[in-house]
Amino acid sequence: MRNKKLVKMTAMAATAAMMMTLVAGCGNSGSDSADKKEDATASKGGSTITIAASAGWVKDIDKELAAKYEEESGNTIEWQVSPDDQYENVLNSKLSVGEGADIFYIRSGVTINKYQPEKHMMDLSDQEWVGRYTDWAKEGVSNDGKVVQFQTWSVDGWGILYNKAIFEEAGITEVPKDFASFKTACDKVLAAGKTPIYEPGAAQWHLGTWLSELTTQEEAENAGFYDSLNDNSEVFAGKEGLSKALDQMVELEKAGYFGKDFMANTWEDMVAKMASEEYAMGVVYTTFPAEVEAVNPELTQESWGMFPIPLNDNKEFGVSAGGIGRCVNKDTKVADAVMDYFDFLSQPENLTAYYDARKDLGPCSFTDIEGNVPAAYGDVMDNASGSGFTAEDGVLYWDSAQVGNLMQGMFLGNSKGEDVLKGIDDLRQPSFGE
Amino acid sequence: MYKKKLYGMRFILPAFILYTVLYIIPTIAGMVISMTDWNVARPDIKFIGLQNFVDIFTSRGGNYLASIGHTFEFTVVTVILKTLLGLGLALLLNKGLKSQNIFRTIFFLPYALAPLIIGITFVSVLKPNGPLNIILESLGMSGLTHSWLTESATAMGSTMMVEVWRMVGWNMMILLAGLQMIPEEYYEAASIDGAGAWKKFTKITLPFLRPSLMTVTVLNTIHGLRVFDIIYSLTGGGPGGLTEVINTQVFKEFGMGRYGMANALNVVIFLMTVIIAVGLQRALSGKGKNE
Questions:
Q1: Which of B16, B55, B241 sits opposite A14 (nearest CB)?
Q2: Which residues contact residue B99 at a Cβ distance below 8 angstroms, ignoring those fewer than 6 apart?
Q3: What range does the domain containing A330 cover?
Q4: pTM higher than 0.90
Q5: Which CATH architecture has domain B48-284?
Q6: Where does the pLDDT of residue B287 fall: very low under 50, low under 70, confident under 90, or very high at 90 and above?
Q7: Residue A324: beta bridge partners?
Q8: What are the two backbone dihedrals, phi and then psi, of residue A328, each rounded to the nearest 5 degrees?
Q9: Do A260 and B62 touch (CB under 8 A)?
């Protein structure tokens, strides 16, 4: 009898505790909406702007400009920085439960679609600074005709960086224009006692980057390919050019152009390996030579040249949609303060300070600021027949790491190029729903 | 009379509430989510019943079946090796060795290190130009050198060996505790009766060690089925998915924002762990036989 009573009391207490948790949660969201109304008119002074970002995207200059803004405006900037490999999950979870920061960083381009722009992103089209965007910046930060990001990053792409001195020593007089001339160049480098290409095969995302770049050619030859992939009316499987390019990549590896055990090579070693001049080439972005120069000052920007990845005789240079941009949470309670912060960051002197500090970035996203145009960028554009978005920036549900994982299977002899393309389709398909 | 000495039911309330809020509710919520198509890229969440589970067992949208196979392979091999090597070390270091305490500490130390740190360290050790290959070459065994983590023949085996190295000391400690509980008189009586070392081991040591062996086997199995950090830090599931296990798949599904599928995979590993752990416990304790 006494036991029954106790069990009953325990059950009631547990139920009450659960109800209290739920009520507390609901109560919190209720007070949030009240706050939202109250703070909707908040402008300069006394507001706190929260900013969510991945650790690698926030540099010292971002903190310095934020501190300067705090001093000038009286508003406070609160950074919510997550480790690089966790940021996407943290951001998704917070947006899903309505606890997203006022400003959140995400990649520009098609990646914007992954975060439900209609639901989570404020339309910034009417801001003054939008009129000063370069064409590529505006295209990269737009979604469904609306500008949804404030962006101070840079357009860049991945091409084959080559050491001019090694090329000269090996007797290579012309930049490879197609697969045949590329193989000939690799043979000459091998004959000169160097390894032709440093490929960090342990970094799955880097392998995926090759195909992401090469997909630009498919879009250039069949305009609308990306749109068809994104509305799920087209697939990768059956694209002969892409499967041929993948099979040619295996051919490069089999010929020994990547050196021994390339799948144990890491991305973290890439700067040191290129600086050591043991390798003649590598697939990198155009500002990479500056990083090499920091390690080996003898190798200046002029020591390098760049050309598009010539597999399947590709001549297109795939570029990003402008890198990383800042979105404004549609549910922000401090919209006026956020716009004020963006106005501050977009002032020419602050943009100049930003790009002066960010030597890793290339051309500036604003027309009235010069930015940095690395020599390799000019070089690869000269060697390319055109440029367009890479798959990473133009194709929905593309994940370079997952693609690289499939490509590793190809190098182990478990699959062919066509199997990789089918694998990409299999990975993307569930995200479109039934 | 005796009942009055027992603690009242209300004493379990704090633990019950905490366990409910922190474990039972999230587990049930995970099971519910596993029956939806929740994807961060889509605004609507639809109830799709068991479709995610059908996709898992038909490998639609990912190589799920291979991951399940790798998880079992990893579990079976590591459970056997960890238990046998742990038992061997426990027998060696049970008594009669001068520096046994120092050795016990040395063998137990890897367990005290974070798996991620161990993983990062072993990536360097197992590199083509890493210490392991250098040692093999210096011993004139160049033919045995490999790119351990990136060759299809050695990748999974290497991750297993690292896990065994990490956990063998922990197994040794539990089995040592079991060995210390065996009364010395049994061995003395057996010696008087003329029993040899093997007879003593099979007729005294093993039967007395059965509860400890059951504990390590069940816990090793659970550890094996839930493996993530060692694999993630050593190979990331590569090369080419050859070391992909269920939990690395869960991590990737979360990364892609496919929460429905990520939770379905979690439910699969949860149910497998429960069924196998309970089955093992019953089998090893001989409960089924006695009943």
A1: B16
A2: none
A3: 41-154+322-357
A4: no
A5: Orthogonal Bundle (1.10)
A6: low
A7: A107
A8: -105, 125
A9: no
